[in-house]
Amino acid sequence: QEQLVESGGRLVQAGGSLRLSCAASGQFFSTYTMGWFRQVPGQERKFVATIDWSGGRTDYAESVEGRFTISRDNAKNTVYLQMNSLKPEDTAVYYCAAKASYGVGYGTYEYDYWGQGTQVTVSS
Q1: CA 33 to CA 48: how far, in whole Å?
Q2: pLDDT (tens digit, 9 = 90+) per residue, 64-88?
């Protein structure tokens, strides 16, 4: 069982930056694909970014491409989401997730473990 804990969310002004962290407690973190998703109240949870087990492959939603960067440190069992040039429309609860099967993932159904989420609010 993998437990994931996100941190780093807060209120920030438009144009600012934040780095989210997701710490994993299990022993298999280094074998998992990791992903970040976000959700606005009343809407479905949406894909933001994904990174494979080695960090060698990453992919992003079009809405964040060029502004967000996903990375991981397997020695620290942690995945990060660096968010730059933030916009009010980035406001959401951000969730990290772990996918046990091979390959990057884009759908919530592909992921096996989820964190509790961290709130990011971008003011205009």
Answers
A1: 14
A2: 999 999 999 999 999 999 999 999 9
| CA gap 48, 81 in Å, rounded | 10
**Cα(60)–Cα(68) distance, integer angstroms:** 8
Q: Long-range contacts of range 90-93, CB-CB < 8 Å, 24 or more positions apart? A: 90/38, 90/64, 90/120, 90/122, 91/40, 91/120, 91/121, 91/122, 92/38, 92/39, 92/40, 92/120, 93/9, 93/38, 93/39, 93/40, 93/117, 93/118, 93/119, 93/120
DSSP letter (8 states) at residue 101: S
Q: Which residues contact 32 (CB under 8 A, 6 or more apart)?
A: 2, 24, 53, 98, 99, 100
Give the contacts of 46 (CB within 8 A, at least 6 positions apart): 37, 38, 39, 61
CB contact at 8 A, 61 and 70: no
